[in-house]
Amino acid sequence: MLKRKNLFLVLGMTFLFSITLVLSGCSSEASVEQLQKIKELEAEKASLEQSIRTKETEKSNLEAEFKSLSSKLDNCNQEQEIVKKRLESWQEPVEETKTTNRR
Whole-model pTM above 0.90? Predict the structure, then answer.
């Protein structure tokens, strides 16, 4: 019987201690400081997301510019090759002045 009383006493004390912790330590509402911190973090998040969008736009603009310049470079290289081939096959004109002076 004494063991039963001790068991109920220990269980009762444990239950009361648990209830006290739950009621005093946990609340279903955020404190004013926590709400303020949440607002600050949301503002920072929005700012960072805007910065990401801006950088992505800059990146795509730079990629488009790179593609354009790369295309122009390819065209210049092709034209340079054409000019080199023409210069290799170019022959100087025959001087007709020497043949006309003999007459």
Answer: no
CA atoms of 86 and 32, how far apart (whole Å): 81
- Spatial distance between the Cα atoms of 61 and 54, rounded to a whole number of angstroms: 11
Map out the domains of the chain as residue ranges: 32-86
Instruction: Give CA–CA dist 34/10, Å, rounded.
Output: 37
Residues 6+ apart with CB under 8 A from 38: 30
Classify 90 in phi/psi space as left (phi over 0), alpha (psi -120 to 50) or beta: beta
The conformation of residue 28, written as its DSSP 8-state character, comes to S
Q: What is the pLDDT of residues 72-88, one digit of tens each?
A: 999 999 999 999 999 98
Q: Which amino acid is at 26?
A: C
